[in-house]
Amino acid sequence: MNGSKQLMAERTYQHFAAQTLVLSSVFLGLVPLIWFAISRGGIAAFRLDAGVWDVLVFTLEQAFLSMVLSAIPGLLIARALARQDFPGHAWLLRLFAVPTALPAIVVVLALTSIYGNRHLLGGWIELYGLGGILLAHVFFNLPLAVRLFYEASEQIAPENFRLSAQLSFTDRELFWHVEWPVFRNIVPRVSALIFLLCAASFVIVLTLGGPTATTLEVAIYQSLRLDFDIGRALTLALIQIVLCFGLVALSGRVMLQNVTHAGNQLFQRRYDGRGFGARFFDFTMIALGAFIVLPPLLALFSSGMTQIQISPQVLNAAGFSFGIGMISSCLALLLAWNIAQQSDWFSQGLALSALIVPPAVMATGWFILLRDFSDSVSVVIATIIALNALMALPFVISILAPAFERNRKKYDRLCAQLALSGWQKIRHIDLPLMTRPLVQSFLLAFILSIGDLTAITLLGNQGVVTLPSLIQIQMGHYRGSDAAGTAFLLAILSLICAWAAQKFGDAHDLD
Length: 511
Description:
Elements: H1 2-41, H2 50-83, H3 89-95, H4 104-115, H5 130-153, H6 158-166, H7 171-199, H8 203-208, H9 216-225, H10 230-251, H11 276-307, H12 312-339, H13 345-351, H14 353-356, H15 359-369, H16 377-418, H17 422-450, H18 454-459, H19 467-476, H20 480-510
Helix pairs in contact: 1-12, 1-15, 1-16, 2-5, 2-7, 2-11, 4-11, 4-20, 5-7, 7-10, 9-10, 9-15, 11-20, 12-16, 12-17, 12-19, 15-16, 16-17, 17-20, 19-20
């Protein structure tokens, strides 16, 4: 009993320390801005004008449309992939994993290289504005929805399909009585996740949007960096905080459940989808998904392979990206290690703080606190690392939390009986059991960090240039071939890390 109490006390202390650090980071971003706004304009600094409402309406509109265009086709494509077997089935599933591993600035460049006015599919869609934003969001989120829905379908017991065949269920009856009871639990969570990611989108809207296509996140950035209108930025930030917090509260533990490596336990043999009409519809949906994902990837790799140049500028940017990625990943892992061991609602909300509280607000608050040192490259790098770590935190916790839960159920009683605690427990129990999820979550955080443009755009200066910011600079100077080569290098690095993370995840599932 004493050993169990000691374990609980250690976890509570570590958990409280990590919570305090994250909460302090958020408050140190918000409080200086609020104080600055009140000292300059009082309560009148917080105002709701027509421009604020226009930004809010567009944010909700593009997020809702992105969610609908991703979730509904994603469910249909996932069901088609689950029902039909064909050569290249496994490779197509792997293809749908690629977009989630690519940085947003790389995807923007890939889309412009295929849908631009002078390119192969130019004229099909107006790339700069709502159409381009929706296209980029669907490119990211449709494959994510497909994978989540497909893995949910794998959890259906095989005997349910055998029984439905014996009862001569039609495809419609099978869907409503066998598949929908599984899908209805995950559809709200996937939809809310996509809506939240699109509502908080920054890089895509910043590069493909315009004066009439601005979301809350970008409007906050513009208010702070271009107009220095603190009151307007805080008004927009408060609206986004309420919106995102409400989404998280309604959808439950959307971001904190590891549903990306479910894996089926038994081989499923399905008896539906054999008619001509069903097969035609399924393969039409599969072709639609491939058409959305494949052309930009082919354009990216075909142009990038011929344009890649390893110049001193690229090497310098790669060095900054690698160093910032390594340190921010370690920091995210350290915070997540302590927070992921508890599953209370406060910890879940705190882990999502960088998605709920706009990064532009936190970054500006930190800038005001450190304005006397803002010209120091080391301070700029430190703040970029901290912001990247907070932005990666929910994704790292989504991997570590289920692993901690499994280990706690299996080994907590044994540790209490053996009086194992502190470093001894970490060394002999936690680290051996958590090696694979730790490596997997580290690689995921590294991918997010090296591909992030948000932090470097908000906090960077001329002395700090990462690969994503170098791509942005090259695009701004109309050096399209150089940008394509740099984007190809960044994409390859991200995909290698994603492949390694997937391998560790698969190995972990087999344990």
